[in-house]
Amino acid sequence: MANETSKGIVLIGMPCAGKSTIGVLLAKALDMEFLDTDHSIELFLDSDLQTYVNNSGYQALRDAEEKVLLKESAYGKVIATGGSAVYSEVGMAHLKSQATVIFLDLPKQQLEQRMTNFTTRGIARRPNQSLSSLFDERRTLYLRYADLQVDCADKSISQLLAELLTLSSGCLSI
């Protein structure tokens, strides 16, 4: 069982890459706490993400996300970040100091198939920015901050969980 001083695991990647879904399963398997930062942001803002983006803009959402990231502890947790967490250099440095950062890398074509609510999902993106453009912009950042990269192409949840458990056995003792 992980404790409050055990190094955590932070999952980064695009919306619909499976961070929250696999994060819950990974945390349970590792007997760690699970945290979804999108949920933490909504609690912090007292608003759902899309309403906040509509009222305050994407940059305000990124600013709120940075505040939430900086107040969270990653020790002893599996954290599923929002897809835009990587825009915060200080937020990512904070998380990396307490956890191993794993990039769930799902190909653009599979993201496009999964994401049916791109315009209503509460994504911190420039007005009229396409999913393809957002993917290209963020992928560079995901690769910059990732300690480990996991190719998620055509993998089932059970296959992905098994791979992450194998990776986790090495990174939790770092």
Lay out the secondary structure:
Elements: E1 8-12, H1 19-30, E2 33-36, H2 37-45, H3 49-56, H4 58-71, E3 77-80, H5 89-96, E4 99-105, H6 108-114, H7 131-145, E5 148-151, H8 157-171
Parallel strand pairs: 1-3, 1-4, 2-3, 4-5
Helix pairs in contact: 1-8, 2-4, 3-4, 4-5
Give an overview in words.
This protein has a single domain, classed as Rossmann fold. It contains eight helices and five strands. The mean pLDDT is 88. By secondary structure, it is an alpha/beta fold. The chain is globular and about 40 Å long. Strands 2-3-1-4-5 form a five-stranded parallel beta sheet, with helices on both faces.
Tell me the domain tally.
1
Indicate the mean pLDDT. 88
Name of the CATH class: Alpha Beta
Strand content: 5-15%
Structural class: alpha/beta
| Major beta-sheet overview | 5 strands, parallel
N- to C-terminal distance: 16 Å
The ordered string of helix (H) and strand (E) elements is EHEHHHEHEHHEH
Shape designation: globular
The strands making up the biggest β-sheet line up spatially as: 2-3-1-4-5
